[in-house]
């Protein structure tokens, strides 16, 4: 089986993220099997705000937490931007939020798809040793956020340490409306 799954389409200025998941709950192989999945159940306001900042085409390091070894298992791509997390409205869900309503949802999710599986998990200890990762919240004790921004340098260093590279990534062709919206976001309007 090939390690590559989805030819990514990048926005003009992609951003990079790290998504944490416990592999016994939902691991990178599960994402590969499903092909596309909502990243739901996030119940931390800072992590939720990061989800809301994500744009279609952004790339994510998929991190297996609470595992031996903990580390990056692959790369995913945001394929749908933030929208209300449906689990917040389900009283049977452990992620139910009785204060959240469809008119005023508190929690968001994005959809992600697999791009590239690493040949082996890139351990946290290896990330700690990389100069590019020294200022990352991931390697600081006590950081429990499940969604974190990473720099392009951190993203590239992780790929190099894993011995992988992404396939050629063409810039995403944006419609006139998308170009206008993107330009407005970048100018702060």
UniProtKB/TrEMBL annotation:
Cited SUPFAM superfamilies: PUA domain-like
Domain EVE: 15-157
Stored InterPro entries: 5hmC_binding, EVE_domain, PUA-like_sf, THYN1-like_EVE
Pfam families: EVE (PF01878)
Name this polypeptide is given: EVE domain-containing protein
């Amino acid at each position: 089986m090939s390690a590559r799954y989805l030819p990514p389409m990048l926005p003009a200025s992609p951003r990079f993220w790290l998504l944490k998941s416990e592999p016994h709950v939902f691991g990178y192989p599960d994402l590969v099997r499903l092909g596309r999945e909502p990243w739901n159940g996030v119940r931390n306001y800072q992590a939720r705000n990061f989800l809301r900042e994500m744009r279609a085409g952004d790339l994510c390091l998929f991190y297996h937490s609470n595992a031996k070894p903990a580390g990056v298992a692959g790369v995913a791509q945001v394929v749908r931007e933030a929208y209300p997390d449906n689990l917040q409205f389900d009283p049977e869900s452990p992620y139910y939020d009785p204060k959240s309503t469809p008119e005023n949802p508190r929690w968001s999710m994005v959809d992600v798809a697999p791009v590239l599986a690493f040949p082996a998990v890139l351990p946290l200890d290896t990330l700690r040793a990389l100069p590019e990762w020294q200022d990352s919240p991931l390697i600081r004790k006590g950081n429990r956020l499940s969604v974190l921004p990473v720099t392009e340098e951190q993203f590239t260093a992780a790929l190099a340490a894993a011995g992988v590279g992404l396939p050629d990534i063409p810039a995403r062709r944006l419609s006139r409306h998308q170009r206008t919206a993107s330009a407005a976001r970048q100018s702060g309007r």
